[in-house]
Design goal:
Blueprint (H helix, E strand, L loop, with lengths): L1 E6 L3 H11 L9 E6 L2 H10 L4 E5 H6 L4 E3 L5 E3 L5 E5 L3 H6 L3 H4 L2 E3 L5 H9 L6 E3 L5 H6 L5 E4 L12 E6 H9 L3 E9 L4 H20 L6 H5 L6 H11 L2 H4 L2 H17 L16
Parallel strand pairs: 1-2, 1-3, 7-8, 7-9
Antiparallel strand pairs: 3-11, 4-11, 5-11, 6-9, 6-10
Helix pairs in contact: 1-9, 6-8
C-alpha cells in the first residue's frame, strides 16, 4: 500500500524517517511516496489536506485538526528548543531602552502558520509588521538590514551569534515561564479518514525508525548529510540532539498536556476558531 508522506529536509526529520523510507526496517508492506519541503510549504499543504501523513507546525495542526489527527511518534517538543527573536547590532540600544519598539519593528518570520509565529503572536500581540521568508534566509536579511528583527528556528539558533547577530528574546523561555510546559513545535499527523489500524501500524514504524537511527548514532546516514546543505556535522548533531528526544518517540502525558495548553492559549487569544477536538488518531 502506498502512502504519501511529507517531512522537511532538516536533520531531525531526515534522522527520524531515514530507516522508514529506505527500508532499513521492515515496513510491513507499506510504500511511502515522499515529499520533502520546507515547513512553511508543508503547513500550506496540510491546510489543503494534500498528503496522507505529514509533518507540520503545531500552529497549523490547530487550524486543520478537523482533517488531520496527531500521531504519537515523530513530534518535536521540548524545553530550551523554542524560536529566538534576534536583531543586528546596529540600533540594539533601542530594543533595550524601549521594549515597545518590537511592536513597531519589521520582523522576518519563517511562515505565518509556524508555531514560531504563534508564540510571537501570543507574546507580542501588537507586533504586526511581519515579512514571511524562508527560515534559512532570515539571518542574511538581518545582516543586510532589510528587516529590524528576525524570528529564527531550527539550526539557526546555533549559528546566529557567529554572524554577529544578537538575541532579543527567547520565545521558548517565555512560553516555559508562562505555562510551565514544554514547547510543541511540530508534529506528524495523519488524515482522520485513514483507518485507525493503518495509523497505528505507521506510528509503530516511525518509533522503530527512530530507534534504528539512535542505535546507529553518532554515525549519520547519508540521507541526513545530503539534505543538510552546508551545515557542518557538528551542527547536524546539535540539531538532532535538541529536537529528537523522548517526546519524538512518544508524546506521553507531558507532551499531550503541552499541546492542549498551546491549543487553549491560541483559542483564548482568538487565533483559532475551534476550542477542542480529539488530538490523536487513536482518540477518534
Amino acid at each position: 500500500m502506498k502512502i504519501s508522506l511529507g517531512f522537511s529536509p532538516c536533520p531531525n526529520d531526515t534522522f527520524i524517517f531515514d530507516a522508514l523510507v529506505h527500508h532499513k526496517i521492515d515496513t510491513k508492506g507499506f510504500e511511502f511516496e515522499v515529499f520533502m519541503e520546507d515547513v512553511s510549504t508543508l503547513n500550506d499543504w496540510a491546510l489543503e489536506g494534500k498528503l496522507d501523513i505529514t509533518k507540520l507546525s503545531f500552529n497549523t495542526f490547530l487550524q486543520c485538526a478537523t482533517t488531520y489527527a496527531l500521531m504519537h511518534a515523530g513530534s518535536a517538543l521540548g524545553k530550551g528548543v523554542g524560536p529566538l527573536l534576534i536583531t543586528h547590532k546596529k540600533g540594539m540600544e533601542q530594543w533595550l531602552e524601549d521594549p515597545s519598539f518590537i511592536e513597531r519593528a519589521t520582523i522576518a518570520i519563517p511562515g505565518l502558520n509556524t508555531t514560531a509565529n504563534l508564540l510571537l503572536q501570543l507574546a507580542y500581540p501588537n507586533a504586526t509588521k511581519k515579512e514571511v521568508m524562508l527560515f534559512s534566509e532570515i539571518e542574511q536579511a538581518l545582516i543586510d538590514h532589510k528587516v529590524d528583527a528576525g524570528l529564527i528556528i531550527h539550526e539557526n539558533r546555533f549559528t546566529y551569534q557567529d554572524k554577529g547577530l544578537l538575541k532579543i528574546k527567547d520565545l521558548g523561555d517565555w512560553w516555559e515561564s508562562t505555562t510551565s510546559s514544554a514547547i510543541p513545535l511540530g508534529g506528524i499527523v495523519a488524515k482522520r479518514s485513514l483507518p485507525k489500524e493503518l495509523c497505528f501500524q505507521i506510528d509503530q514504524l516511525i518509533k522503530e525508525s527512530i530507534a534504528y537511527a539512535w542505535n546507529n548514532y553518532p554515525s549519520l546516514a547519508s540521507f541526513v548529510k545530503e539534505n543538510a546543505q552546508e551545515m557542518s556535522e557538528e551542527v547536524m548533531r546539535k540539531h538532532i540532539q535538541l529536537y529528537v528526544n523522548d517526546f519524538s518517540t512518544d508524546l506521553g502525558e507531558e507532551g499531550t498536556l503541552a499541546i492542549q495548553t498551546l491549543w487553549t492559549y491560541a483559542y483564548k487569544a482568538q487565533l483559532i476558531a475551534t476550542e477542542k477536538l480529539p488530538i490523536f488518531y487513536s482518540d477518534n
